[in-house]
Amino acid sequence: xxxxxxxxxxxxxxxxEHLAETGYYNPYTMFDWPESIEPDLPWMxxxxxxxxxxxxxxxxxxxxxxxxxxxxxxxxxxxNIHGIRELMSExxxxxxxxxxxxxxxxLHHFIGEENEHMWFFARFCLRYGGKLYPAxxxxxxxxxxxxxxxxxxxxxxxRILIFEEIVDYYNAHMATDQSLPRIAREINRVHHQDxxxxxAFGRMVFVNLxxxxxxxxxxxxxxxxxxxxxxxxxxxxxxxxPAAYRDAGIPDALALRRRALEHPARxxxxxEVLKRTRKFLSKAGVGREAIA
Length: 292
Ligand SMILES: [Fe+2]
Ligand SMILES: [Fe+2]
What we know:
11 helices; binds fe (ii) ion; 292 residues
């Protein structure tokens, strides 16, 4: 990792560190894990399933609809687990680099919290779903391989930020959804609380690294913008897991996935999920309109 060419990331994180310290909790004792979940409750908000708003949802039996909420919850939590593992390993590798010396206290909180998130998401999946879904193939980064070290560093933190922002949209909604079993609601609520700090931090790091890229070579910005747009699309597509459709007893999983992904109601739903992140990227100068 050629981070020596990157200027130190200097940020004032006093407020975020204070919040992390005062809000510290013991994840291993704070949840009540029931033996099993009431069979007639959705595990994921129905409005957040990948078929919500389409005729494909209406065509399902009530039993299939509930099964879909269960398997899509397991898929969503599995995506969290794999995403966390990826971002944790990136952050661990950097914690004592000169570039991040100034923010390493916060990075310690970050890694500790993510380890705990990974634990409670996996516990839910294994206890109630009996499995995790395997990690999906990651997005190829060939288009950005030739960029400067600082631009590639920006991409690493941008992936973390985008992942956390998308997940948080779902967590924030499910944290207050009274139709969910209590344990599902609680996991989403607790995660949302920690992630609000991570997203704030992620945006600060992103802006710092992007400034460095712009100063060094503004011609890299459109390439970064294009990659980030493809990463947004990729991330949304991982929510549509054919294995979850199959597990829910829905036939023609692959064809269904294709139809669902391009259905106008779903395109609108994706825009809603990505609205906040797109606004941030545009304001930073690296949104869709910055693509060459
Ligand atoms: Fe997390
Ligand atoms: Fe996080």
